[in-house]
């Protein structure tokens, strides 16, 4: 049993399914699923395109405990249609966030619901087959995140899956209280293939994996302030990072918003003229910037933490 637990803790987050991530992240045996596969809550649209549906529509939602503390959780299944947002999958996430909002705000929600939500994002964006319904789902999720945070709910995004967090998932991550990312994780609005298709390979070569990861990958996002914590690509790595950031969630008020706006304006002023990630790392004062790509987790985390302290980043 101990060996199984140790093996599970070191399993790759990047390679895992949504349910495997939940199992590796939460306290053993603590997860209770809402609207599970037996409920057959699935997309009504995919059959029109002769596409197979999933009984959970690619999103697993429920509650459990993390280090003994209650959390609500939504995990996207990147292996089902790239984890894309659809009408049903989006509604499941929205419902979870609204339940947390109502519980925290003394509304009609259940008083015993946790005041923290973990979003395990693994998505390329909106499900194109559901078009406007998918776009609306993303907008509703983002609004629900903001409403939950306004009522004192901590909402943390965990990004490290094969699909990354692009499009609506990238926007959703930006609305969260905190973002945890691994080196394998990627965060952006437009995915590399989308940029190449619209602007040409000269603008962005989506086949150049080193380029892709250096621009939208976890290391660059962490260094430029697009993520708050860096996790090893293991279940235990994400678990430890999630526990740490949940203890450092700022209040969601005007002071926080003004500070964030000032931080983003400063970042644009400092890095806006750079042509690539290495150029940004050089401006940030990192010695031997090209070496960042090959640094192990400990060495990289040390640099990221020192950079944060040097910039007096309270995040």
3D shape: globular
User: What is the average of the pLDDT values?
Assistant: 90
> Unreliable segments (pLDDT under 50, ≥5 consecutive)?
none
Protein structure class: alpha/beta
Give a brief rundown of this model.
The chain has helices at 2-9, 18-25, 87-105, 131-150, 168-175, 192-199, 209-216, 218-223, 235-246, 254-271, 277-283, 297-310, and strands at residues 32-34, 59-66, 69-76, 116-121, 154-159, 178-182, 229-231.
Structure description:
It is a single chain. Helix 3 packs parallel to helix 4 and helix 4 runs parallel beside helix 5. The longest helix is centred in the middle third of the chain and has 20 residues. This protein has a domain of 210 residues: 2-enoyl-CoA Hydratase, Chain A, domain 1 (Alpha-Beta Complex), CATH 3.90.226.10. The radius of gyration is 19 Å and the shape is globular. Helix content is 43%, strand content 12%. It has 315 residues and is of the alpha/beta class. It has a seven-stranded mixed sheet, with helices on both faces.
What's the SSE blueprint?
Blueprint: H1 2-9, H2 18-25, E1 32-34, E2 59-66, E3 69-76, H3 87-105, E4 116-121, H4 131-150, E5 154-159, H5 168-175, E6 178-182, H6 192-199, H7 209-216, H8 218-223, E7 229-231, H9 235-246, H10 254-271, H11 277-283, H12 297-310
Parallel strand pairs: 3-4, 4-5, 5-6, 6-7
Antiparallel strand pairs: 1-2, 2-3
């Amino acid at each position: 049993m101990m060996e199984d637990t140790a093996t599970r803790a070191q399993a790759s987050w990047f390679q895992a399914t949504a349910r495997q991530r939940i199992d590796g992240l939460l306290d053993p045996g603590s997860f209770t699923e809402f609207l599970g596969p037996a409920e057959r809550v699935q997309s009504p649209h995919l059959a029109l395109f002769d596409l197979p549906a999933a009984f959970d529509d690619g999103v697993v939602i429920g509650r459990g405990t993390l280090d003994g503390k209650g959390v609500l959780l939504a995990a996207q299944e990147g292996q089902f249609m790239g984890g894309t947002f659809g009408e049903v999958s989006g509604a499941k996430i929205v419902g979870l966030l609204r339940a947390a909002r109502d519980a925290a705000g003394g509304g009609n929600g259940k008083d015993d619901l946790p005041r923290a939500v973990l979003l395990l994002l693994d998505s390329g964006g909106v499900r194109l087959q559901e078009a406007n319904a998918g776009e609306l789902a993303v907008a509703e999720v983002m609004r629900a995140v903001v409403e939950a945070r306004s009522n004192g709910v901590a909402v943390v995004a965990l990004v490290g899956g094969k699909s990354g967090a692009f499009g609506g998932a990238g926007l959703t991550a930006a609305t969260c209280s905190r973002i945890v990312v691994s080196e394998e994780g990627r965060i952006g609005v437009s995915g590399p293939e989308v940029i190449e298709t619209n602007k040409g390979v000269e603008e962005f070569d989506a086949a150049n994996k080193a380029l892709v990861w250096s621009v939208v990958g976890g290391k660059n996002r962490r260094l430029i302030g697009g993520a708050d914590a860096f996790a090893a690509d293991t279940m235990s790595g994400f678990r430890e990072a999630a526990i740490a950031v949940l203890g450092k969630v700022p209040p969601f008020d005007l002071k926080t918003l003004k500070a964030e706006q000032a931080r983003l304006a400063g970042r644009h002023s400092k890095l806006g003229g750079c042509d690539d990630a290495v150029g940004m790392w050089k401006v940030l004062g990192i010695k031997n910037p090209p070496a960042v790509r090959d640094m192990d987790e400990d060495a990289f985390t040390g640099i990221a933490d020192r950079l944060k302290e040097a910039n007096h980043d309270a995040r």
